[in-house]
Design brief:
It contains seven helices and five strands; from the N terminus they run H-E-E-H-E-E-H-H-E-H-H-H. It is of the alpha+beta class. The chain has one domain (30-166). The protein has a five-stranded mixed sheet. Helix 2 crosses helix 5. The protein is globular, with a radius of gyration of 16 Å. The termini are far apart.
Length: 170
């Protein structure tokens, strides 16, 4: 009973405010640290989001967390600015500590979603695995490759996010 109650509580932030009108992309997640808009000749405007998760329990949790947050953020983008951007490019960053104990951050993944694909999503019946799988492009940096390797070593993640996990070996 406590486990399912805890899972229900964990899902509340994802459900809260889903239908509210948002004025700024930054308001879709506290983990968004920077937003830029870039005009791409012949295509339109690309939304570029820098996302930083400072509290990471594990590499696997980092990837799961960013996937759940990407659902919330992408749903908000489609709901609030359905025709403004042609794609959304995320720069997923994670905290690092060097051998001298100095803290910093590093780019882990660059993930791109086409807004045309995001508009097709049934948000009421969509999973974090699905969010990862419909990415139009994924670029792994060393930190991200390590995290995604850990994520994809989980049997369920591998099974349900196979298109995403396949990108590791391609």
């Amino acid at each position: 009973m406590w486990k399912s109650f805890g899972l229900a509580l964990a899902a509340l932030p994802l459900l809260a405010g889903c239908d509210e009108k948002i004025e700024r992309v930054e308001d879709l997640s506290r983990r968004i640290v920077k937003v830029e808009k870039t005009n791409v000749l012949g295509k339109g405007e690309r939304l570029e989001i820098t996302y930083f998760e400072k509290d990471i329990l594990s590499e696997k949790a980092f990837v799961s967390g960013l996937a759940f947050d990407a659902i919330k953020i992408n749903k908000g983008i489609v709901a609030n600015w359905p025709d403004k951007y042609f794609e959304v490019l995320y720069f997923f960053k994670a905290p690092t500590t060097d051998k001298f104990g100095q803290s910093g951050d590093a780019l882990a993944l660059k993930v791109k979603w086409d807004v045309a694909d995001l508009k097709k999503v049934n948000w009421d019946n969509f999973t974090a695995w699905g969010m990862l799988s419909i990415a139009s492009d994924v670029q792994f940096k060393p930190l991200g490759r390590q995290a995604v390797t850990a994520y994809c070593s989980d049997e369920d993640n591998l099974r349900y996010a196979i298109d995403f996990c396949r990108r590791l070996i391609l």
